[in-house]
Amino acid sequence: MLPRETPDRAAASIAGRATAALETRQLSRKSGDRILVHDVSVAVTAGEILAVVGPSGAGKSSFLRLLNRLDEPTSGTVLLKSTDYRSIAPQDLRRRVGMVMQTAYLFPGTVADNIAFGPRQRGEAPAPDRIAALLERVGLPGFSDRHVSNLSGGEAQRVALARTLANEPDALLLDEPTSALDEASVRGIEELILGIVGERRMTCVIVTHNRTQAMRLAGRTMVMEAGRLAAIGPTREVLHAG
C-alpha cells in the first residue's frame, strides 16, 4: 500500500510543484457534525489531469464543488494561479474554473443559445463562427440550431463541455462526466477531454468511479476516504497499490 498522505507530506509535495495552476491548502468542509472534506492539500499543474477516486460517500464530489466555491469551505482555501480564490468574484471564479456535471443540465432553447450563455452574462455576444468552431471541436458540426430536447445523452454532454469552453476557463472540473453514457460515447468524451486539455494547457480535475477511466485519462490520481486524502501519486502506482 502507498503511505497515507499527511499534511506535512502534502505541503512538501506542493512546495515542489511551484508551477501549480490550481492548489488547495488544508481545504475542509463540515455540515453539522458530518465531515465532508478534511484538511486536503493538493496542487495541480497546467495541462495536467488529476483523477479523484474513492468509495461512495468518500467526499469526492464535495471536494470538487469546493474548488470553484459552489460550496463554501469551513477552513482552508484554494489558490488559482497563486491567487486566493476568496479574492475573486464568484461569477468570475466560476468562469475561470468551469464545471461539467454527471448529467448535462442544458437550458431550454438551441445549442447555440446554450453556448452563448456564459459570454452573454459578461455582455459579450459570441460570433456565429466562434460557436461553430466550438461545436466543430466537440464533434458536433452543424448543431447550432438544434434544439437541446433533440440531443442524445452523449451529444448533450458535448454541448455542456462546449458551453464551458466558451468561457475560456483556466481549469476544468468534471464530476462523473461519462457515468450515464454508453461505452462508445464514453470513449468519445474521453478522447475529447484529452485533446482539449492538451491543446489548451488546462488544469483538469475529474471525479470518477471508474478506475480504468482514471488510468486512461489521468497522470496522477488521488484517493479519498471519509473526506480525507488517503493517497496521491502516479495513477498506475496508486490504483495498483489499492
Automatic annotation (TrEMBL):
Keywords: ATP-binding, Nucleotide-binding, Phosphate transport, Transport. It holds the Pfam family ABC_tran. The keyword Transport applies. It comes from the Bacteria. Transmembrane segments: none annotated. One of its GO terms (molecular function) is ATP hydrolysis activity. GO terms for cellular component: membrane. Residues 22-241 form the ABC transporter domain. SUPFAM superfamilies: P-loop containing nucleoside triphosphate hydrolases (SSF52540). The keyword ATP-binding applies. GO terms for biological process: phosphate ion transmembrane transport. Involved in beta-(1-->2)glucan export. Transmembrane domains (TMD) form a pore in the inner membrane and the ATP-binding domain (NBD) is responsible for energy generation. Belongs to the ABC transporter superfamily. This is Arginine transport ATP-binding protein ArtM.
